[in-house]
Amino acid sequence: MIERVGTLSIFVTDQDRAKQFYTEVLGFELHRDEPLYPGATARWVEVAPPGAETALILYLPDQNWEHYQAVRGKSQALTFNVTHMAATHDELVAKGVRFVQEPDVQPWGTYAIIEDSEGNKLLLVQQPGG
Q: How far is CA 117 from CA 7, 24, 34, in A?
């Protein structure tokens, strides 16, 4: 029986730069950082928001995964829920995060779109009434 979503991959060009962005800028926890296999230069870099069950893999595609090169820097269709959009916006702007879409209030919630260190677009959503 499937219990939950374990990990999602986001495709990056520089794992160290991406790890720094997700841990130091967004405040994610580093769960793992180890070689994909013995002798590999690419690593399994796993990060997640504090207390989250689902983690992100900051994945560096190699020649076996070239088809993922095309999605790097595009919208990754990832949504991160936030509790206080205004405070989150101010904190991230102070850290130099680029907002592609400033917070916008809609009936289904308040959303914004940020760009990570690799150019990937990420959706932030505050649920209505939150």
A: 20, 12, 21
